[in-house]
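Reopening this ticket.

The earlier resolution said the output was attached, but the attachment link was broken on my side. Pasting everything inline this time so it's all in one place.
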Amino acid sequence: MKKEKLRNQVEDAWGVPRGRIPPKPGYHTMAMFQAVNDKKIRAIWINCSSPAQSLPNVTPYREGMKSDDVFMVCTDIFPTKTTECANLILPTAFHFEKTGVYGCTERRSQITPKAVDAPGDAMPEVWIVREWALKLAKELNDPVIAQCVAPFVGKEPDFELPEAIWDEYTQKLTKHRDNDLRGATYDVLKSMADGVQWPAPTKEFALTGGTVMKFVRGSDPMADSEAKDDKPYQFYGPAHADKKLWIWLRPYVGADEEPDAEYPLYLSTGRIIDHWHTTSMTGRVPELLRANPYSFVEINPKDAKKMGVRPGDMVEIESRRGKVEMPAKVVEGPMEGMVFAYWHDMHEDRMINKVCNDAYDPGSKEPEFKICSCRVRRLSGPRALTPYITQLNG
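Inline output:
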């Protein structure tokens, strides 16, 4: 954590010596998995995510995950392309098999109480992390780790433990910050079906639903308390130290890889309405799998005519990094000169992230999933395809 003030705030909240939290931030996502490939990271714990399918230019990163030089732990509820690479799989409780607070970019926090028991030995992640921390503190004889986990020892995992973690976060780490959630206690959240939008510094205000319009006086209590003049809009918080709204105008920068004579088309990728990310969950819902059982690529009719591609034909999509094959959908959706492929499919032959570029924006570190160059060629007419979902035995 780069900022000393924030490091100290967390260290004080945990009751550990100042200076224990390293000042150097960790790797961003792409750099982290490159560090796995470079053997700079020798152990990695992946929680409810599947980078072995979701990373761009995924093939070299999968090789790193499979390497004997790294020990990989996966916490998940279903088998994925990533659990296939793991040395240890920790089965965890599903969404409604545990209690927790869900947060989203709408600034909304909603509680989801446990509804049913998890199968077998599956446990909530908070229990898994607590037990691991206790074992780590013992193995390393580290009183600081023991101090961090001490407030949570002995709490049952279905409600008391997640509530204690939420209380520590909201009461100690959001106080007087622009995401102040001190009013959104478990008792308040349980009474609010639509949740609470931060900031919500008091229980009374949280019970109204919180802040609908941030920075607006009369809607945002911190816009009122932090106001420096009588303007109806008041900007505050660490991003607005001068109380002004900043709009950054950035010069246009093209993609890392543009079409050329060898790879003449733009490739863009995205999700389809029936599936979420890597289909580890939605692919196991029969109705959703029937609706869209495998990936396909959308091609503009003008491009399809030049390629000799008809609806349903099997085509190959190739870039400098890899190639896959999938059915073509000839549609006006993509502009001429661009193809659009869906990335949810687990099948090795149709996994479009093998083709994507892993270049990333130097500011946001967001990879260029949405743009690279490729070429497309017709392979055959329509072909019967079988949906593929990873099973525990691979």
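Reporter confirms the inline version is readable. The chain is about 25% helix and 15% strand. The chain has a mean pLDDT of 95.
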